[in-house]
Amino acid sequence: MSVPARPETLHTRILSWYAVAQRDLPWRRPGCSPWGVLVSEVMLQQTPVARVRPVWERWLERWPTPTDLAGDPAGEAVRAWDRLGYPRRALRLHAAATTIRDEHGGQVPGEEETLRTLPGVGDYTAAAVAAFAFGRRTTVVDTNVRRVHARLVTGTALPSPSLTRAEVALATTLLPQDDAESARWNVAVMELGALVCTARSPRCGECPVADLCAWRLAGSPPYDGPPRRGQAWAGTDRQCRGLMVQLLREATEPVPGRRLRELWPDALQRDRCLDALVADRLVEPLDDDYFRLPA
């Protein structure tokens, strides 16, 4: 796989563009703590920036350190998660905070390998925190990065549905050698994908490397790979579970099971979802058919 121009040319153009076009996001500011970066990366998984920002700000105001969060019940993390979706992320973040407090002296570790040992922290999150919180030279590949690289280098409209080793290898090849510049490069490519090289309506006229883009030079051919299915919501278990968690989040006292069951007409689906929430430890059953967020 070849790169369409000297990497230095790509670095110069994209980093210069980012210096002017970047959004002012609180977790990118110089004073943001590694904990703030970790919280942002967990919240941003499959969730738009506009929804994350107010929740992140309230979260950091309430729990400015991992030790602060670890000192509260896990249910409070679920409650503060608000409507970000996939609330198991709140439990994992609480578990990660507890591990950081108990095993790392309350400080977010800076090494990618150590970060991967934290509950709920996978390869992407570990690399992102190492890069953006500690300035490490590491390969950070999210959906936006994959799309930019697919178009710029491979000439395809969209990347494959699942991350491949070839994509990671390409991203590593494109990294600047300097640690700090590498960290800026990772976030700059993300921002390019988020603001310009978007999935549905790319703004090629604003792209700093449009004249080097293999996809554009090939005539912008449409995507012809495996089908890409969007995630359904209405009528799904996710919707049912979300309604139950939201009711418990808003309640100040344990909620009778009757009220949870009134939320959904399909009895089999409803009971399956409630059982799953209990199994995932997002909901805690009490005596006399009452439920609450985990203590």
Please provide a written account of the structure.
With 295 residues, this protein is mainly alpha-helical. The chain has a domain at 237-289. Helices cover 54% and strands 3% of the residues. It has 15 helices and 3 strands. The protein has helices at 7-21, 34-43, 49-62, 66-70, 74-80, 88-103, 112-115, 123-134, 143-154, 165-174, 179-195, 214-217, 237-250, 257-261, 267-279, and strands at 255-256, 284-286, 290-292. It has a 3-stranded antiparallel sheet. Helix 2 runs antiparallel to helix 8 and helix 5 packs across helix 6. 35% of the residues are buried. The mean pLDDT is 94.
Describe the structure concisely for a colleague:
This protein is mainly α.
Gap between N and C termini? 52 Å
| Total helical elements | 15
Sequence stretches where pLDDT stays below 50 over 5 or more residues: none
Helicity, as a percent range = 40-55%
- Describe the strand arrangement of the main beta sheet, using strand numbers: 1-3-2
Structural class: mainly alpha
Mean pLDDT: 94
Radius of gyration, whole Å = 21 Å
Largest sheet at a glance? 3 strands, antiparallel
Give keywords.
3% strand, mainly alpha, three-stranded antiparallel beta sheet, 295 residues
Annotate the secondary structure layout.
Layout: H1 7-21, H2 34-43, H3 49-62, H4 66-70, H5 74-80, H6 88-103, H7 112-115, H8 123-134, H9 143-154, H10 165-174, H11 179-195, H12 214-217, H13 237-250, E1 255-256, H14 257-261, H15 267-279, E2 284-286, E3 290-292
Antiparallel strand pairs: 1-3, 2-3
Helix pairs in contact: 1-11, 2-3, 2-8, 5-6, 9-11, 13-15
